Amino acid sequence: MPATPHKSTQELTEVEHIMMSRFANRFYLDRAVDLEVITGILQAARHAGTGANIQPWRVYVTTGAAKTALTDAVTAAHKTAPGEYSSEYSYLPDPLPEPFASRRREFGAVFYGSLGIAHDDLPARSEQTERNCRFFDAPVGLVFTIDRRLEKGSWLDLGMFIQNIMLAAKARGLDTCTQEFLSRYHRVFREHLPLKCEELVVCSMAMGFGDPDWARRRPHMPKASIEEFASLHGF
Fold first, then answer.
1. What is the pLDDT of residues 134-166, one digit of tens each?
2. What angle, rounded to 10 degrees, do the helices at 35-45 and 152-171 form?
3. Where residue 70 sits, what CATH number does that domain have?
4. What is the CA radius of gyration of the chain?
5. CA distance 4 to 159
6. pTM exceeds 0.90 for this model
7. Side-by-side strand order, sheet with 140-147
8. Which range marks the domain in which residue 157 is found?
9. Does the pLDDT of residue 6 top 80, yes or no?
10. DSSP bridge pairs for 206
């Protein structure tokens, strides 16, 4: 017989409410974020778990004229010669095995469907993809790097640091969207940001005040049940 889905009777904590309300927002208001808010987020995020206290992360935070110059350059590169740029690492394998491939297709159907963009409407999909280059018009754009000499364990630490930033931002009323897509334009980033040669661009992140209209009508991505990913023993 199939397992009965587990439903917790415990009241959610404030932290859990923040975790469950966070989503990848691709629509933002034209509203600046104060430097004090940004530094507060970074102050909290730096306490992320990290093996042997390596703290392998670096983050470049851009806004205003600096962000505009960066996004203009990335957009120009994307429009003129996208094939000349590629990430320094592989985010997903090709081909993507199941059940991951099905989940990826489901995401595309749900997200683009919510925007009224058909599967075969390539111009509209391309236009939406190009919005990555502008950090989805969010007022703040972050670029995350890691020392290329480090191993996979340190990438786990970087992920916890990025997650801390997303949660600390949400706690302050801000939305975020991490972007692996822009890692392919690392050469452009190097022309505008003081990256050292050993720094590898892992991803970027849009951050700002999310558009409340989109928040009300956005689709909720299906998540796997506990029974699908957890194996509990000895309870």
1. 999 999 999 999 999 999 999 999 999 999 999
2. 140
3. 3.40.109.10
4. 19
5. 32
6. yes
7. 57-63, 140-147, 199-208, 175-179
8. 21-90+132-218
9. no
10. 141, 177
Domains identified in the chain, total number: 1
Residue 3 has pLDDT above 50, yes or no: no
pLDDT at 5 over 60: no
Q: What are phi and psi of 231, to 5 degrees?
A: -125, 110
**What's the pLDDT score for residue 8?**
64
3 state DSSP class of 184: helix
Among residues 153, 129, 167, which one has the least CA distance to residue 47? 167
CB-side neighbour CA atoms (13 Å) of 55:
6
Q: Phi-psi bin for 18: left (phi > 0), alpha (psi -120 to 50), beta? A: alpha
Closest Cα partner for 137 from 192, 171, 179, 165?
179
The owner of tokens 């991951």 is: 100
Flag whether 12 is in a domain. Answer: no
Amino acid at 147: D
pLDDT attached to residue 1: 41
